[in-house]
């Protein structure tokens, strides 16, 4: 009888400890619920001349999930975009700040919940951090955050020196560090790109470039 009781107890412990699909262990952190993607907000800016590669590259998928239809509250920058004039909007979004390249995540996940390589074409848009402009109650921060991933995996086209390259939105950037703050125009128009995308656009050993414009490949899908 005692033996059967021990077996049942062990079975219940195993069952409730290893429920699949509920908890993911993130290196260097505690368990994180898979239904809520992790926002790293620690994008690693890089000097393209170092040509460093991410760790564990073989474990990282070469493709991204398809973007999901937006739902819930619109982003702060979606509402900002609506206020642009028709002529401004037609030209795409002109960055008010210079852009920089960033490295891959290594074995961590980006704000959209998936790791990526510096050799992939990845885009980082504003997370809404350090904003000078308070959000409306029915808005989410910036363009994208781990808690508000409606714009994740959208295709973004970037133009520099009359050359256009497309990447996938998979990361969120604060653009400034505390105590510095950033205005809405600069935050919502800002964009950083991965090392590979930087090179495809014509960047070499520069650490900043002033891109001509960027936009969602499908602006009607932006959220």
From TrEMBL:
<feature type="region of interest" description="Disordered">
    <location>
        <begin position="44"/>
        <end position="75"/>
    </location>
</feature>
<feature type="compositionally biased region" description="Polar residues">
    <location>
        <begin position="47"/>
        <end position="64"/>
    </location>
</feature>
<feature type="signal peptide">
    <location>
        <begin position="1"/>
        <end position="24"/>
    </location>
</feature>
<keyword id="KW-0732">Signal</keyword>
<protein>
    <recommendedName>
        <fullName>Secreted protein</fullName>
    </recommendedName>
</protein>
<dbReference type="InterPro" id="IPR036908">
    <property type="entry name" value="RlpA-like_sf"/>
</dbReference>
